[in-house]
Amino acid sequence: LCRGGLAERLCRLQNRERSAISFWRHQCISDDKIPSDKSGVLIVRILELFEECTIQVAICQQLEQCPATLSPEDAVINAEEPILKVLFTRETAAHLKSRPQDVIHIYPPWQKLLLQNADVPVIMNTYFSQKVLLSEHTEAREKTYGLTKMLIRKNIISLAQTFRLDDLDDELHQESSDNQVACAPQIHSNCDSKQHPLALSAVNDSLLEMVESQGAVGWREVQVRVVIQRVYCLPARGGCRSHIQGNKPLLSNGGMFCRLCLLVQDAYGMFSEVQLQSLSSTDDIEQYCRRWEGKFCCLSGMKILQRTTRGRALGLFSLIDSLWPPVVPVKVPGQSQDAEMMTTNLPPPSFCYILTVQSGEIHVEVDEEEQISNLYQPPAVHGLKEILRIDGCNRRCSFWAQVLYLRLQTKHSVPIDQREILLFVTDSTLQNVVHGIPKVVAVSVTASCVLSMEIVEALSVGSRLVFFKDALWGNGRIICVERTVLLLQKPLLCSAAGADLSELTGPVRLDELDSATQANSVCALRGTVVGVNESTAFSWPTCDRCGNGKLELCPQDRELLYCNQCSEVVTTPVLKMQLEVFLSCPSRSQSTVKVKVWHEIGFRLFVLLTMLLFLQTYEVQSVLGKEVGLLSCYVHSVTSHPNCVALEEIVLL
């Protein structure tokens, strides 16, 4: 706040006001009595209660004196006593917990407002109020009502009705009267008990109006109708994303680790993220996307978890920005809805409410039979070539690509379940490029991106076409972050915008190693062996069934190998050999090219033992000068001082 400005002065005034009210209430509770000073005290009896625009309105009867000697029979409305309309704030109403027939003492400085063309005065500034009841009256009321919570009728007043717009017609008046929510006894008396509990609830189309009228605690009596723009999962606290089995990163499916979420939009263009129940498996996320995205749903029983802004949640607002501006005109509060609104000049949302469900409530009703909403924006699918040319950062993008190779980042200071996974992908738009753009790009999958077990299992078997929905592009990288969804099937609704999405027909080509090759990329390599690092050469037997590289001697027969993972004897192990060689490459003649080469050879056991003995006298001269064909390699590092490139031979999926 600007120092000395009106907002700062108002904030100080509100703080002093809250402190004065809290001190007054504390004094009343500690003294256990009504303040003795009766000068200026307004005494009223409540006749009717309802809520309007977050204010509790009480229709009251003014009393001349405290009804200390009144009996329950005297609680009859006297026509001679004046009727007042008393306004209580949400905090004051929660403190009083008033019901009809309660007697309230309102202490100064209350104010009386006389409205034109209205016979009933309005009482405001009622912060210093106290409920007064006789002890026997209190006992009788407790027996009648018990501990049940009083349901207050809420009148939902539209802005169009408040400002009396010119195009307001009788239908709007009728709609406003229909939106009045009655107390629970009236609902049960006017509807069938077998009917849905929310059948007579008012349905609103404004998230902001619901939040302002119902507050942060949550709304139960009313619903808000929204469109589901996106369905995704967010990692729950304490969730574990992956663990390692062999060299393959797998999803941990033990315990509830992710939460199903919806990004919804109302008729005014406002967004909100709804966090639903926790899921023990993400295999259903593709089903939820197909069934719910683009459909209308009604929210009820929500409570506000957080009000977040663009600076606090860049990932959420990057997704919202990809859905802005709306594809159809949206409603504008306080303006005629018949006029055509220009949606291109509307400012993007600057805040968003994070909603969550309340236990034991009816939360989300999705109308799966209804047609797709015109407000829904399906993911815009682009080719990778087009994405690499997008200017700016933190831009959401969706694409369809072939996964060729996956690799877990080896940062030993970071726990395994928090490391990034690199997916190397390509599509027809990259494979057809002659030069200037890489034929294969790396997609970084962060630990916050929830992967389904279906995706991980499919990639562990072989190369697959994967649909990347709402990935993040920026600073020359494609990143899968929170709210990015990976699917094996393309959504039913998506806009291609003229992009070439044809599938690959021929073999995949990699870029050859050259001066433009960067670290953490894949390339093809050819050259001549000029040296071997003998100190790092080694070999070891592995299981031919599971690939376990830690075989042991069989306890029953010391001449056989045994696999603990398979619990079986290994008769035909696979010999794996690692060798670091130095190559002379024409494409990088000034660089030292060091390649870690892997070999797998299947042997009978007696041949394997002979081979292991032979490796002790392995002749380095036998490989020098040999020509190396096109090897698929992963680039570990590229340095200029010294001028060196470190690679590792890989096997594409």
Write the layout of secondary structure elements.
Layout: H1 6-31, E1 42-52, E2 55-63, E3 83-88, H2 90-96, E4 103-106, E5 111-113, E6 122-124, E7 129-132, H3 135-145, E8 153-155, H4 159-163, H5 170-178, H6 184-190, E9 202-204, H7 207-214, E10 222-235, E11 242-245, E12 248-251, E13 258-265, E14 271-279, H8 285-292, E15 296-299, E16 302-309, H9 314-322, E17 351-357, E18 364-366, H10 384-387, E19 395-408, E20 421-426, H11 428-431, E21 441-445, H12 453-461, E22 464-474, E23 477-480, E24 485-487, E25 522-542, E26 552-553, E27 561-563, E28 568-570, E29 574-584, E30 592-602, H13 605-614, E31 627-640, E32 643-649
Parallel strand pairs: 1-8, 3-6, 9-10, 14-17, 21-23, 30-32
Antiparallel strand pairs: 1-2, 1-4, 2-3, 4-7, 5-6, 10-13, 10-15, 11-12, 13-14, 15-18, 16-17, 19-20, 19-22, 20-21, 22-23, 22-24, 25-29, 25-31, 26-27, 27-28, 29-30, 31-32
Domain DUF4503: 265-652
Protein name: SPIDR protein
GO biological process, one term: double-strand break repair via homologous recombination
Q: Stretches where pLDDT falls below 50 for ≥5 residues?
A: 71-76, 168-200, 239-256, 604-613
For the record, give the distance between the C-alpha atoms at the N and C termini, rounded to a whole number: 58 Å
Structural class: alpha+beta
Q: What assembly state would you assign to the polypeptide chains in this entry?
A: single chain
Integer average pLDDT: 78
Q: What is the H level of CATH, i.e. the homologous superfamily of the largest domain?
A: Nucleic acid-binding proteins
- Beta-strand percentage range: 25-35%
Number of DSSP helical runs: 13
Tell me the overall shape.
Answer: elongated
**CATH architecture classification name of the largest domain:** Beta Barrel
Q: Radius of gyration, Cα only, in angstroms?
A: 36 Å
Largest sheet: 8 strands, mixed
Q: Which bin fits the share of residues in helices? A: 10-25%
Number of strands: 32
CATH topology name of the largest domain: OB fold (Dihydrolipoamide Acetyltransferase, E2P)
InterPro entries: DNA_repair-scaffolding, DUF4502, DUF4503
GO cellular component, one term: nuclear chromosome
Domain DUF4503: 265-652
Domain DUF4502: 1-113
